tRNA (guanine-N(1)-)-methyltransferase
Amino acid sequence: MWVGVVSLFPEMFEAIARHGVTGRAVSQGRVALEFWNPRDYATDRHRSVDDRPYGGGPGMLMKVDTLRAAIHAARERASEATGQRPRVIYLSPQGRRLDQQGARELACGSPLVVVAGRYEGIDERIVESDIDEEWSIGDYVLSGGELPAMVLIDAAARLVPGVLGHQDSAVEDSFNEGLLDCPHYTRPEEIDGRRVPDVLLSGHHGEIRRWRLKQSLGRTWLRRPDLLEGRTLSAEQQKLLEEFIEEYAL
Ligand SMILES: COc1ccccc1CNc1ccc(C(N)=O)cn1
């Protein structure tokens, strides 16, 4: 996966570029991250990258000429590096809500150019002319698009084949089936009198799979019933959920 990042604070992206699963993906070349900083395209003495909003009002916007130069440079490089036109993405509270399905879409195929806004955002004409898609990580406002950009890149990068240790861990990710995850346990077998569920110690892999699926279904029913709306459960899933509800009601 190739990602070009347009940001005034490229060093923030060390958080994903140099640590953990994403850091390893970058060092192994499975994910390529390149950066363009609008400030590098500033020509005035103060190297300004923000500008005043027409119509007045509080705050500033990102300066048009330096931002456009950075976006165009990233676009060009994307085409050079991958032979494909990139999808230019802008993170903003006005964008399409990122979810696991969206992450899957972003992970496969086209190179991405991700634009992280600062100040009060960017000129609408840039959104119209240079941005292909607006995405949001949730209904809240942050001081910049860098953290949302890292969330989007991380969610997509971990789905790139070979990035996760053993591929099943992405497949087993309950959101993969659109369900919440089941509870997880590791040593010791008992913590303050709380024991690991016996089924997980039994070695019966079929029982364990069913227990985990039942827990995922039950938790989803309890915490996020909306995820079950309009979803047809298999006969097995229906049975397991009914069992969970019966036991829960007891
Ligand atoms: C006032 O900030 C802005 C105003 C407009 C656009 C971008 C920004 C940068 N901030 C962001 C960016 C994305 C998200 C999100 N929900 O994905 C939250 N905040």
Remarks:
- The longest helix spans residues 64-82.
- Strands lie at 2-6, 32-36, 50-51, 61-62, 87-97, 112-115, 133-136, 190-191, 194-195.
